[in-house]
Amino acid sequence: MPKTILSNLNLSIPSGQVVGIIGPNGAGKTSLLNILQGRIKPSSGDVKVLGQALGNMSLQERAQCIAYVSQHPPHVFDLTVLDVVKFGRLPHIQMFAFGQQDAQQDLVKKALHRFHLEDIKDRSFDALSGGEQQRAYLAQAMVQDACILLMDEPINHLDIKHQLELLSQLRDLPQDVILTLHDLNLAASYCDHLILMKNGQVVAQGTPREVLTTNLIQSTYGIDVTFHPACQHVDDLVGGKGDLSSESVPFMSYHQKAPKHD
């Protein structure tokens, strides 16, 4: 009997924003991304991207519209970093399309620069650290030049400096960005809109202040949470999103729920 992974989904994801999908392990975050990019077909209903039904798009049309960075990318064998990044242009390559080479090279150069890959572009991809490989895949997604960028745990394997740098860079991209995250503090600081999931269902969605409430965090994660007033170093961190505003969420710490005693 088929297993239901997600149920009763009714989402309208805003454009022009960084959208974070959060929730405990097994909540359905990655499955939702797979539906949004067309790798999983919903058993009922449909998915529309920019008003067009995803199921009616060809594979090339999807790739031109949606870029996806997986949490577990496929093995690329013995390729250089530059080769991996260039693969992002494949959906746009047309036979006998002369005159496009300069524009494509410019996109690749910008991506290598943005993700600090210029000095290692000729190295074997297999020789890179996990964080360097992740940055190469992010550069590949950038040169794909799609209007929507889906990312599954993009800050995995990155140290804290590169985590903050990447999330700040995502806010500067012209694409709509939808990503899964586990760190609620980073989600609050860098996402405009949050989708909170549990057991294959959307529990809440809205601004970080609307979603990251004590009750919702406790009921979704089964933990207690303490909100801390913003201080100077928090202002600096949230600076990736802009000035600390009324929509910002104070930083929070978590701890296991205290056992109940009779």
Automatic annotation (TrEMBL):
What InterPro entries does the database record attribute to this sequence?
AAA+_ATPase, ABC_transporter-like_ATP-bd, P-loop_NTPase
Does the keyword Ligase belong to this entry?
A: no
What domain of life? Answer: Bacteria
The residue ranges of the ABC transporter domain are 1-224
Identify one Pfam family in the record: ABC_tran
What UniProt keywords apply to this chain's record, in alphabetical order? ATP-binding, Nucleotide-binding, Transport
Keyword Nucleotide-binding found: yes
Q: Name one GO molecular function term.
A: ATP hydrolysis activity
Q: Which family does it belong to?
A: Belongs to the ABC transporter superfamily.
- Name the chain's protein: ABC transporter ATP-binding protein
The root-end lineage is: Bacteria, Pseudomonadati, Pseudomonadota, Gammaproteobacteria, Alteromonadales
